[in-house]
């Protein structure tokens, strides 16, 4: 059976040593002293470790089932869901007006990592609700907010996002679901939506579906799309639940993973829906949800790698097999632990250095969101908009790879479901696909975000890297971080330059290199946060006499990242600079 | 539902244009004219496409079950197994004395790709039998051969390999299974073996287990290990089946994939066993089986990628989503096919160029085995011994990655089991683990094979590359192949040099870079076979007026490999040259 121990110390390091939140000027951050964040993280850890994680494997094995139109979640899920609900965890970073605690998004993200590592499928019921709340907060009327938000913040009701249809995934312009206006101002929604995560279940009284559909008069393609609230049970003016709406579950998909989350085919049969936001501006409203959702998915990518690493580490320390070639480390035992072998260490260091870097990168991103929202900081908003596809695409691609590598540490046992390593990989796999497949993230990065506001945000990113290097170039301890960071950053600039020079004339040159660019960018981001973490660790070693091993390990782990991961930037640049020629040479008929 | 079309044309190209088997001096190759190999491949394709492939998804969904000590395979498997048997496919490359057809191993491998792509789990029952036959052929007495081989070649009986125990995987010295000598010369075998593929089933009359166990007097560690034949039903002198032996199935493992192959816990309870080969020399006998088995597993890696690619290609041509940024390609339809998008093409070209290169590399390797066996060519034997861990480790790592990428082409549908892309990835995953996890392959390559016969074989490999480049350097058409091949080969030599200079003094420096070296080596091998295939394709274009599109596509696909895959050698070299320092820096307690 896999286990889980929340990395509260590492989270503390990122929040306080790296991001130094208690002295930050972001409104609300000053309240977040070490005692306060520790108390929250410890409570989250208890819930994750003792309640959610023990249901992860059993939930995977049992899955959800549809009986007589009702969706049933696996044994124990309702009980765990009730405890998440009772703890008010869903409202942690939501407005007090609707029952939340108004803590920063950053804290919600730190807690989110713990819950996702503990039980990704279970946490998704909450995560989807959170996304739907964000959309209603941003685009709903006051009446809609009053009707839906208190119950959703408390998780008496959960939420969903309905975009995809059988013939239409990324290309939402092909959408067929229709919204017919009614005399009372509502709409009748008719059509079929697929891949609806948390589409229905037996843990909440009501499910509030946010549904994209085409209302008359909007024109072709995505222009005609509007966003609607479609509750499973209609809600009376007094907030009471009324009749069942015309929405039903057609089936639950059989998937590679996240079996305990019901991925539903939803059939809308003249269901009553309420327009949210402006008519025919549904795409814009949906994107509000999507940007935060994408960071949440990036977090899933590294959180699965984190729990997989946690288990691989334990296994490598415990499993006796072979001998250290430089001399037995466990001479009285029948063999040495796996961890003595350099190739096993390589795998563990790959995982550890990725996970810790990804955590720092994601939480830095979350702090940018707080800065953007709480201070109306346009630069922070632009920067996180640029980094969002990198967080989503790079961290989920790499997070999956690291789950596979953690599984590999187990040898044959890694392939056996009982050990749980297969589930981490199978669950992590979806994060590369949903909320925009990673190729779409790369397209968003190269096709939109790079040139946004005349390239201002990517220039700002380069400036951050340059300034950090300049400010620290006299610190000899950081040389092993700054030299590779500089080289990697130069590769990133060369790639951006290649796109600028060629992208206008030959857009395929940029598009053929988009995924490599996303990975190149991701490596530079992790190189940057590792250099910053090394600096923070050296500072802590100077000011404190305790936990020296922890800070030393942090620096050693960062050095590994710089030596072994970061050189990948040159490969990505070489691929980018090879352009579109070899990619596009074959006629479609000759594949 | 996934589909499968056997790549008979590509196999023909490798056999005849690249390897030019009909004019080869290897005994038996002269009989293999194009008509003959086409007839075989077409028959294999029919069986694979029409009989085996249609059972792949259903076999995965149903899995095997153990009831009252009996293992039952999924619906339809027995029928398909009988057809493989009736066609004499198992004996294709086995001696005529025992009912085989004595065709080259190369032909067996080409057919093997088709069967593995069609249904890996089903093919394993045959594959394991083939491995057991090889061991009996190499080490069995004449009487043992006469008793077991005819029935195994015909697949009336199947075979297994029993190495692993719960506490002992790679480190076989920890083995506990005991063999007690009996007065009649037989042994009583007692112990538990796990992860026994095709351990039992309902398709054959008998199962012949090859079991490693410790007989008294052999000393500690692997020295005391001997190899035994342990039949499920004892065999009388007349070949008739007698009493059930003391071997039983404890359970069937729940695995990530290959559900239709019964992976059994086998309990030996004073089971009657017969020593095969020399007492206490069991490891050597096992390695005979293992080298060919490892090439077979490498083949599984790329064969799963091949069928996954075949489906991804079809999906990308069929699925309409979005528009070509350079202008609509399907203006009358609602959208263009996925294949117009450069990032989708990148994924498909990654897969196509890997699969075709891997096929050529593996079949070249198979031809070296024929040369070694049929001509007692020691150089060929040494070279294939060097390349075996590369074929196994590199092709299964990359093959899995390519299955994941093929799955990614499907977007959300890739995650749904119904589409079959998940199964290709889940099935391919095991190939990175069994027959020696890929880290063990890398260790074998760097720790043993590289220095074997004073490094003679790796020098021979470099000579092959060098000679090819020299012989063709005036052919301007090949410049795009020779320049990158030369650079990649230089990286490989630098890595080998690094190990030679540092490996003796600091073995961890070599071990910490072993997996990167295996991948670096793999890329050079694929670069070499692609350069050769390009040359062969140009030759065909000169001599023939038909199939020009096929040969042009071959060259274009090779160019992609050289431009996009091969630059990875520099990254692997950088990692190798960073040495063991960052890998070994952390104390085990600080992971």
UniProtKB/TrEMBL annotation, chains A, B:
Q: In the UniProt record, does the keyword Kinase occur?
A: no
Q: Which cofactor does it need?
A: FAD
Q: Give this protein's Gene Ontology molecular function annotations.
A: flavin adenine dinucleotide binding; oxidoreductase activity, acting on the CH-CH group of donors
Q: Can you give the residue ranges of the Acyl-CoA oxidase/dehydrogenase middle domain? A: 161-269
Q: Does the keyword Oxidoreductase apply?
A: yes
Domain of life of the native organism: Bacteria
Give residue ranges for domain Acyl-CoA dehydrogenase/oxidase N-terminal.
40-155
What is the uppermost EC class here? oxidoreductase
Record keywords, A-Z: FAD, Flavoprotein, Oxidoreductase
Q: What does this protein do?
A: Involved in the assimilation of dimethylsulphoniopropionate (DMSP), an important compound in the fixation of carbon in marine phytoplankton, by mediating the conversion of 3-(methylthio)propanoyl-CoA (MMPA-CoA) to 3-(methylthio)acryloyl-CoA (MTA-CoA).
Protein name as catalogued: 3-methylmercaptopropionyl-CoA dehydrogenase
* Taxonomic source organism: Roseinatronobacter thiooxidans
């Amino acid at each position: 059976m896999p286990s889980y121990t929340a990395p509260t110390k590492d989270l503390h390091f990122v929040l306080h040593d790296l991001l130094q939140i208690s002295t930050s000027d972001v409104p609300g951050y000053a309240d977040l002293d070490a005692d306060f964040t520790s108390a929250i993280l410890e409570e989250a850890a208890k819930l994750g470790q003792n309640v959610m994680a023990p249901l992860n494997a059993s939930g995977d094995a049992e899955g959800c089932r549809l009986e007589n139109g009702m969706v049933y979640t696996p044994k124990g899920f309702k009980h765990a869901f009730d405890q998440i609900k009772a703890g008010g965890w869903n409202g942690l970073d939501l407005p007090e007006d609707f029952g939340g605690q108004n803590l920063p998004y950053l804290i919600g993200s730190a807690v989110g990592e713990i819950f996702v590592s503990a039980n990704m499928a279970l946490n998704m019921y909450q995560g989807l609700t959170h996304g739907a709340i964000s959309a209603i907060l941003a685009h709903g009327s006051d009446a809609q907010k009053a009707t839906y938000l208190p119950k959703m913040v408390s998780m008496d009701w959960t939420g969903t996002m309905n975009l995809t249809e059988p013939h239409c995934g990324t290309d939402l312009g092909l959408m067929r679901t229709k919204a017919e206006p009614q005399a009372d101002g509502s709409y009748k929604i008719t059509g079929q939506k697929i891949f609806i995560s948390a589409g229905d279940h037996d843990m909440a009284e009501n499910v509030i579906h946010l549904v994209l559909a085409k209302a008359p008069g909007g024109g072709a393609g995505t222009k005609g799309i509007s966003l609607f609230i479609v509750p499973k049970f209609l809600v009376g003016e007094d907030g009471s639940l009324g009749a069942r709406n015309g929405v039903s579950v057609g089936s639950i998909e059989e998937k590679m993973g996240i079996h305990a989350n019901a991925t539903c085919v939803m059939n809308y049969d003249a269901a009553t829906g309420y327009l949210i936001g402006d008519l025919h501006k549904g795409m814009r409203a949906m994107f509000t949800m999507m940007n935060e959702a994408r960071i949440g998915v990036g977090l899933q990518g590294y959180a699965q790698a984190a729990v997989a690493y946690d288990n691989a580490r334990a296994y490598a320390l415990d499993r006796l097999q072979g001998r250290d070639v430089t001399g037995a480390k466990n001479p009285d035992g029948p063999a040495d632990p796996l961890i003595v072998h350099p190739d096993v260490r390589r795998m563990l260091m790959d995982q550890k250095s990725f996970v810790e870097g990804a955590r720092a990168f994601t939480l830095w991103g979350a702090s940018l969101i707080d800065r953007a929202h709480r201070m109306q900081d346009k630069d922070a908003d632009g920067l996180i908009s640029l980094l969002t596809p990198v967080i989503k695409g790079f961290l989920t691609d790499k997070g999956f790879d690291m789950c596979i590598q953690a599984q590999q540490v187990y040898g044959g046992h890694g392939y056996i479901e009982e050990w749980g390593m297969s589930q981490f990989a199978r669950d992590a796999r979806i994060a590369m696909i949903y909320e925009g497949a990673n190729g779409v993230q790369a397209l968003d990065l190269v096709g939109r975000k790079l040139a946004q506001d005349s390239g201002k945000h990517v220039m700002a990113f380069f400036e951050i890297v340059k300034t950090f290097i300049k400010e620290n170039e006299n610190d000899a301890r950081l040389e092993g971080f700054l030299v590779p960071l500089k080289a990697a950053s130069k590769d990133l600039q060369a790639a951006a330059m290649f796109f600028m020079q060629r992208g206008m004339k030959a857009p395929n040159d940029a598009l053929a290199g988009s995924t490599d660019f996303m990975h190149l960018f991701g490596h530079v981001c992790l190189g940057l946060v590792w250099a910053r973490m090394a600096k923070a660790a050296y500072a802590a070693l100077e000011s404190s006499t305790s936990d020296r091993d922890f800070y030393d390990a942090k620096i050693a782990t960062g050095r590994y990242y710089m030596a072994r991961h970061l050189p990948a930037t040159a490969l990505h640049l070489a691929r980018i600079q090879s352009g579109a020629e070899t990619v596009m040479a074959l006629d479609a008929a000759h594949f």
